[in-house]
């Protein structure tokens, strides 16, 4: 069976560390380093039948497959990161053989070396801020939050038949203003937190707010950011974040990490500003 | 270098959120040419379902994908526009219902409501309402 090599990360470490510590790889095969000069790529063997152009096109359409591969990819990157600086590669970076991997390490040497130096000893914290049910539970009109404007007939029925069109309009306005106010307040809190955390971080990236269909989180995601922090300061950063939002009921803050510096890799001098 | 020792413990516990992982492995990290030429942007599902959920705003805009800008749950700009539209819609409905009170009453009420709203709204919005009342 023809095999290909799936690459997870590039490290500057001497290859030969305990292979088992890199995890199982995307198909359960052992992860091992392929070295070229001072750089090494962490790879595992994958069947060509599942990872050539045609197969990948099809497989990536399969959410279950994608989740499995994404999690395995991430676990290898995380394991490599915990053992030293590792540059995470984009999902599905695949080579025909070790020569292909070495060629990549050779031609990309300067860029990869620069990124490794820049990100060595750094980790990434993810910080997300959501509106809370507590904040959203502010009083609203009888139509309820999020209800489509059903016209005055519905409003009359909902409030003992005495609500005029004008009162209905006012209720809807108040309701909208409350919702808008909650969002504004949460965004302001998120902005303040972001400003504080940015001062403590070496760099920061703001991601799109996450879609609840993927994150399965309640509340509106008003901030989704990553902060690049020296690993030595990682705990202090997390503690500071915790302190800043302690007792805060108007927003919910979720911290994730420490991550390998995914959000900062490849964003140095390698991409157009 | 005792890298393992200085690497901090994971924050909290439990399985990592899939959205957090996909956001990073699909949209971040080093992009470097593999032997297998796969363009993640070409994948239909990624384009339709997933890329929209995880791709960065700039990248999606490059691809001409910007529907969330009109989706109130994802964009504060859309929320503001939606609010304006709803105000206008409700205003028209009120006008229809209270048509019996005559045109003067309608304008008067519109004015009162406008005053109440303007305490909370930006002046930009107020301007558009003035235009609307004058026009109607």
UniProtKB/TrEMBL annotation, chain A:
<comment type="similarity">
    <text>Belongs to the gas vesicle GvpF/GvpL family.</text>
</comment>
<feature type="region of interest" description="Disordered">
    <location>
        <begin position="136"/>
        <end position="164"/>
    </location>
</feature>
<keyword id="KW-0304">Gas vesicle</keyword>
<feature type="compositionally biased region" description="Low complexity">
    <location>
        <begin position="136"/>
        <end position="156"/>
    </location>
</feature>
<dbReference type="InterPro" id="IPR009430">
    <property type="entry name" value="GvpL/GvpF"/>
</dbReference>
<protein>
    <submittedName>
        <fullName>GvpL/GvpF family gas vesicle protein</fullName>
    </submittedName>
</protein>
<dbReference type="Pfam" id="PF06386">
    <property type="entry name" value="GvpL_GvpF"/>
</dbReference>
TrEMBL record, chain B:
<dbReference type="InterPro" id="IPR018493">
    <property type="entry name" value="GvpA-like_CS"/>
</dbReference>
<protein>
    <submittedName>
        <fullName>Gas vesicle protein</fullName>
    </submittedName>
</protein>
<dbReference type="InterPro" id="IPR050530">
    <property type="entry name" value="GvpA"/>
</dbReference>
<feature type="compositionally biased region" description="Basic and acidic residues">
    <location>
        <begin position="92"/>
        <end position="101"/>
    </location>
</feature>
<comment type="similarity">
    <text>Belongs to the gas vesicle GvpA family.</text>
</comment>
<dbReference type="InterPro" id="IPR000638">
    <property type="entry name" value="Gas-vesicle_GvpA-like"/>
</dbReference>
<feature type="compositionally biased region" description="Basic and acidic residues">
    <location>
        <begin position="111"/>
        <end position="136"/>
    </location>
</feature>
<keyword id="KW-0304">Gas vesicle</keyword>
<dbReference type="Pfam" id="PF00741">
    <property type="entry name" value="Gas_vesicle"/>
</dbReference>
<feature type="region of interest" description="Disordered">
    <location>
        <begin position="92"/>
        <end position="136"/>
    </location>
</feature>
